[in-house]
Amino acid sequence: MTKRFGDQVVLHDFDLEIYPGETMVIMGGSGSGKSTTLRLMIGSLIPDEGEIWIFGQNLCDLDEGGMNEVRKKFGILFQSGALFNSMTVAENVALPLMEHTDLDPEIIDIQVKIKLELVGLREHAEKLPGMLSGGMKKRAGLARALALDPRVLFYDEPSAGLDPVTSAQIDQLIIAMSKHLGVTSIVVTHEMDSAFAIADRMAMLDKGRILKVETRAWYERLRDLPRDHAETLTTDEQLIRQFLRGEAEGPFTNRESGQGLATALFGSDSGRIRVQ
Ligand SMILES: Nc1ncnc2c1ncn2[C@@H]1O[C@H](COP(=O)(O)OP(=O)(O)OP(=O)(O)O)[C@@H](O)[C@H]1O
Ligand SMILES: [Mg+2]
Q1: 3-271 is classed in which CATH architecture?
Q2: For the segment 124-140, what is each residue's pLDDT rounded down to a tens digit?
Q3: I need a surface site. Which of 67, 214, 249, 262 has the fewest CB within 10 A?
Q4: CA 234 to CA 236: how far, in whole Å?
């Protein structure tokens, strides 16, 4: 698919296949198009060209009713947790069940307890979101995303802003969801520790283009490749390697400081500055 916002092409010939039950991590720098990708996948944006197939249906062909049916099989964990602040944790988790099912209140209550137990928050059911820490909010958001027993879970930056231990706990929860519940997980992140902990496969996105879709083992090998071997890599691979290692110098940054600034200063690449 291709997605534009005005003149800006945000995703360009984007092509990605996600297998049932796998955890796919989509990574990339800020502004590379990760969140846009997620919003397209959940049907909150439509592509300018191309198709998005899920459960044998093209999302772009569905009307609002059809889209709602598909969305019931999705669980979405937004970056902020996106909880309703005036409702308790338990009420937040119950909300999708009240909106999308006609289950009795007692059954909903049991479902909510199970989901809160899964994320380790059962004892905090009656708290308001404002009384929770960042990590607890994330877990509450995950419990709510799990409310309808989704087949696919979407996570946008699940560990952003969390301390390393809490972040590792969220990673463990993501792994547990796929292992025990068999859900397919699509995780957007630029936290490399987390990406390597949870991924079956990884996709590197750069300026709206997918550079590589490969197994975690492939990405690990690339990350750990000694510098003197790195010269044999393609430019894309060198760029990915720099990103994975979090290094300040390399093809990922050189083009930013070269072309980007020249374009900003002179309106085109013709006045390109070379820093010796
Ligand atoms: N609704 C919108 N209207 C116009 N431009 C948008 C819109 N949403 C995103 N963009 C642009 O699309 C590009 C990709 O944005 P996106 O939010 O997908 O990036 P991202 O990879 O999620 O970045 P980050 O890591 O900072 O969250 C950016 O240049 C952004 O400004
Ligand atoms: Mg984003």
Answers
A1: 3-Layer(aba) Sandwich (3.40)
A2: 999 999 999 888 888 89
A3: 249
A4: 5
Q: How many residues does the chain have?
A: 276
Q: Is 35 in the pocket of ligand 1 (CB under 6 A)?
A: yes
Q: What angle do CA 99, 45, 34 make, to 5 degrees?
A: 105
Q: pLDDT tens across 80-126, in order?
A: 668 899 999 999 999 999 988 899 999 999 999 999 998 889 999 99
From ligand 1's centre to the CA of 119, what distance in Å? Answer: 30
What pLDDT is stored for residue 152 in this prediction?
95
Taking the centre of ligand 1 as the mean of its atom positions, its distance from the CA of residue 34, in whole angstroms, is 8
Say if residue 272's pLDDT is above 60: no
- The predicted structure's pLDDT at residue 50: 96
Which atom of ligand 1 lies closest to the CA of 205? 21
Q: DSSP code of 3?
A: E
Half-sphere exposure of 249 toward its Cβ, with a 13 Å CA cutoff? Answer: 1
| Nearest CA owner, ligand 1 atom 26 | 30
Q: How far is the CA of 1 from the centre of ligand 1 (A)?
A: 16
Beta bridge partners of 169: none
Residue 164 Cβ contacting ligand 1 at under 6 Å: no
Q: Does the beta carbon of 36 sit less than 6 angstroms from any atom of ligand 1?
A: yes
The dihedral through the CA atoms of 42, 43, 47, 53 has a sign that is positive
Taking only the tens place, the pLDDT of each residue in 215-258 is: 999 999 999 998 888 788 999 999 999 999 988 888 877 776 55
Q: How many CA atoms lie within 13 A of 161 on its CB side?
A: 12
